[in-house]
Automatic annotation (TrEMBL):
Organism in which the protein naturally occurs: Nonomuraea insulae
Record-annotated membrane-spanning stretches: none
Database matches in Pfam families: HIT
UniProt-listed GO biological process terms: methylation
Protein name: HIT family protein
SUPFAM superfamilies associated with the record: HIT-like (SSF54197)
Residue interval(s) of motif Histidine triad motif: 96-100
Primary enzyme class: transferase
Record's keyword terms, sorted: Methyltransferase, Transferase
């Protein structure tokens, strides 16, 4: 198995697992963005959001909700970020679908990945039409 997350699911790669159920497993990320940074992955291998079945994604999200509540309670985190990246251009580095659950302790413990620039609603009309038209 070349996928590190598949090896963790199989039990052949060590991890600090904090949640397991029939569909998903959650373990502490080796690269802790904040204390308790956890990855939630489906037990079945799916490369990214384009490949994961909706039902499986729903199971992963349910696990992420449970993990978020557990992290907030255990660590006293007043906030939590969920993060997902699909594709190399979106910074995905392990190509097994996963959600990052990142406990937040201070508004400044992470840097926002984008700068908020509000666009007038009317200027977004063409973009919305283009997206709705795609099938």
């Amino acid at each position: 198995m070349s996928c590190v997350f598949c090896r963790i699911v199989a039990g052949t790669e060590p991890s600090q697992t904090i949640h397991e159920d029939e569909h998903a497993i959650a373990f502490l990320n080796l690269a802790q963005a904040t204390k308790g940074h956890t990855l939630v992955v489906p037990r079945a291998h799916h490369r990214d959001i384009g490949e994961i079945p909706v039902e499986t994604a729903a199971h992963v999200m349910r696990a992420a909700v449970e993990v978020s509540r557990r992290l907030a309670g255990a660590l006293g985190a007043p906030g939590v970020n969920l993060w997902h990246a699909s594709g190399k251009t979106a910074w995905q580095s392990v190509f097994h679908f996963h959600l990052h659950v990142v406990p937040r302790f201070e508004p400044t413990d992470l840097t926002p990945p984008w700068i908020e620039v509000e666009h007038p609603l009317e200027s977004l009309k063409g973009l919305a039409e283009e997206i709705r038209a795609w099938r």
